[in-house]
Amino acid sequence: MSATRRELLFGSAGALAGLASGQSPARRPNVLFVFSDQQQARTVSAYGPTPVRTPNIDRIAAQGCRFDNAISIYPVCSPFRGMLMSGLYPMRNGVVGNDTPLSDGLPTLGKLFRQAGYHTGYIGKWHLESTRTGFVPHSRRQGFDDFWAVHSCNHDHFDSPYYMEDPERELTHPGYEPDSQTKLAIDFARKSVQGGAPFCLAVSFGPPHNPYKAPAGNEARFQPEDDIPLPPNVQEHAIVDELLRTDTRPLTPAFRRQRERARARLTDDGRIRREILRGYYGACEALDACVGRLLASLAELGVADDTIVVYTSDHGDMAGAHRMSLKQLPFEESIRVPFVIRYPRRITAGGVTQTLLSPVDILPTLLSLSGIGFESERFDGRDLSAAATAAAGEQRGSVPIMKMVHGGNPWIQNGVRPWRGVRTQRHTYAELEGEPWILFDNQEDPYQMANLVADPGHAALSRKLQADMQAGRERSGDTLTEAQIDSFRHEQRRKFPGLQ
User: Fold this and answer.
1) Which residues pair with residue 208 across a beta bridge?
2) Euclidean distance between CA atoms 469 and 461, whole angstroms
3) Domains of the chain
4) What pTM was estimated for this model as a whole?
5) Which ranges in 87-205 belong to alpha helices (H)?
6) Going along 92-195, which residue ranges are E strands?
7) Using N-to-C axis directions, what is the helix angle for 77-86 and 362-369, rounded to 10°?
8) Are 71 and 312 in contact (CB under 8 A)?
9) pLDDT digit string (tens) for 24-36?
10) Across the chain, how many H-helices and E-strands are there?
11) 66 Cβ contact partners less than 8 Å away, ≥ 6 residues apart
């Protein structure tokens, strides 16, 4: 990163505060940003036929705009959160892998809205530190200073712990974690409205992330399990086998156990056990009910028309596709997420856009819709408010997609190797260690079962997408070697060691 670029980014938080223009703070819209963990777009019924019923998320889409090409360009938890908070790509915000801290001094979502007069709050999973212990001090809360009910990273979705202001006082969400978090969110919104200031609230739900558990009533919706339809690509696995092929690194015992557990989730004929889909789908429906309560509270408070509401997810889950679960892969189940947005004052109901949306676009888009001025060169992302308000606007040709480091747990370290690629409105192209790996026509082959990368008839397209991929790497600052990125990550973790 050049000195000029670094000064622009790290010196911009205060400068941006002075750029706030347009609506006065009292007249600016509230922002309710809700995101789940590990939810693919195909689990939202607004996106097409699915066993999952999501009437409340569908309502946001029907009353606002649905982005059909919302892409989690680095489909791992921490990198998404870093891009959401900063509007910058991983090499520029520091979060190049899971459990990697966000750099200090950046103009983040919480800081910018707070400087513009907003009451800011954050509820749920944080996952922007080097450790997963619970308490996050004020100095690391990135501007979400008015309300905080967070565990740094936790996947216990029942009776789960969280912290507020006292590091010595671990609190508990009674029952199903999202239900408790929804109550906290409604209380925060009510107090903010009564106080007269606009609010900006992020609600980060933990499900449907594994262990794929949901309230009994939601799971019961998907019984008997034999009636749960399976995706048509559950049998295809040759493409993933190439990714899982071991390289020069020896397999650790921990990874061998992890692989055995993953394979144990599959039946003899390679289909993921339906009880996992039962929990996964059940959790998606449970979250939809929480969204319904949040929407009802906005109406009760009289601010439904004055609130920007977003529902999305940090990344998807393979959920049995290509005999895989979890994320980290360039397949649609992993990178394509729901993104629906409602703001009746500016967004016409029923909008659908094919515009490619990347996590780095979210912050500038929210700032624009909220009437908070900013200089576009301070972010890597684009303001896509025109796409949301008119389902039109500027079209980009592609977005980079990536998995940059081995780091983290044994599955990542010894199994899913780093890859790079590009996603257009129609195609997905990716390389493993500099060699062409996949090319899919997502329009003709939505379940990505026909790999065209070695097809001579698609050679010209492969070359074009390879050039787009290289341009995307340069644009995103992803120009280091794997060893250099690993070194960068270790230094980032050293600068921001474990929390209390």
Assistant:
1) 37
2) 12
3) 3-237+271-397 (3.40.720.10)
4) 0.91
5) 90-93, 109-115, 177-195
6) 119-125, 147-151, 161-162, 171-172
7) 40
8) no
9) 444 799 999 999 9
10) 17, 14
11) 46, 47, 339, 340, 351, 352, 353
Phi, psi of 79 (to 5 degrees): -55, -40
What is the tens place of the pLDDT at every residue in 49-79?
A: 999 999 999 999 999 999 999 999 999 999 9
Amino acid at the residue 137: P
Q: Quote the tokens at residue 270.
A: 């390679």
**DSSP category for residue 336:** B
Cα–Cα distance, 92 to 6 (Å, whole number): 9
Cβ distance 424 to 104 under 8 Å? no
Can you tell me the distance from the alpha carbon of 96 to that of 101, in angstroms, rounded to the nearest whole number? 9
Token pair for 58: 């569908």
| Residue listed under structure tokens 């699915």 | 50
Distance separating alpha carbons of residues 34 and 310, to the nearest angstrom: 6
What one-character DSSP code corresponds to residue 478?
-
Is residue 178 a contact partner of residue 160, using CB atoms and an 8 Å limit?
no
C-alpha to C-alpha distance for 392 and 406, rounded to whole angstroms: 38
